[in-house]
Write a structure and sequence with these properties.
This protein has about 220 residues and is α+β, with helices and mostly antiparallel strands. It has one domain. The protein contains three helices and eleven strands; from the N terminus they run βββαββββαββββα. Strand 8 and strand 9 form a beta hairpin.
């Protein structure tokens, strides 16, 4: 396993909005730190990543922003946005026909160094706006779409490795597992897609509940 300080990692975030619901949502992955002169090229790569095969897995939406963040300790310790761009990128192949908070749970991990606790060698992300056709009668993601999502994550890793190169070295050009607890990042060697759907908590909190109150006789 190859490891590096967490400051050698970078967070890539996509911001999008369903075409039929007025709420922004986002998801992200981690990769190796790029030189600031390469940030525009990385943002361009991010737009290309979601406009390829991944778009066919989503309900119709528009990507509105792309963001890059680095791990910093000035002011507060955590991810600090260092670059962004706005856009209007149409994606998706079917009008939203399932609850917009629904997400496919994906992730990536490192499996080679058992001396590092497993929870520090895996990251999770939530892919928004799956289509209703992906939901089986048992309420889980279909196995064929599970394969499609896995394939897309593998393709994302390959696209990132194609450049621009990361500053900590070739092992960190693709997907990178980040552990704030360990203050480290690790090269990812495996992607994971679960079949049980989940809800992105921040999106659920933003959705108005609009309850009704009925007095008990």
């Amino acid at each position: 396993m190859t490891s590096a300080p967490i400051t050698d990692a970078m967070k890539c975030t996509w911001v999008l909005q369903p075409d039929t619901f007025p709420e922004l949502m986002e998801f992200g992955i981690h990769t190796g730190l790029r030189d600031d002169s390469d940030w525009p090229a990385l943002l361009t790569k991010m737009a290309a990543i979601v406009s390829s095969d991944f778009s066919a897995l989503q309900s119709t939406c528009h990507y509105t922003a792309l963001r890059l963040s680095t791990w910093q300790t000035g002011g507060f310790t955590g991810w600090h946005q260092v670059a962004s761009t706005t856009l209007s990128l149409a994606a998706g192949s079917v009008s939203l026909d399932s609850p917009h908070q629904l997400s496919v749970v994906g992730g990536y991990r490192n499996t080679t160094d058992l001396a590092v606790p497993v929870q520090r060698r895996r990251n999770r992300t939530y892919f928004p706006l799956p289509k209703k056709s992906q939901i089986q009668t048992d309420g889980r993601l279909s196995t064929s779409d599970q394969t499609n999502y896995s394939g897309n994550l593998v393709n994302w890793d390959a696209a990132l490795r194609a450049g621009p190169a990361s500053t900590p070295g070739a092992a960190f050009d693709g997907l990178v597992v980040v552990s704030p607890a360990a203050g480290a990042c690790y090269d990812a060697d495996t992607v994971v897609i679960g079949r049980r759907f989940d809800v992105h908590r921040s999106r659920a909190e933003q959705t108005p509940e609009n309850p009704t109150f009925t007095p008990i006789p």
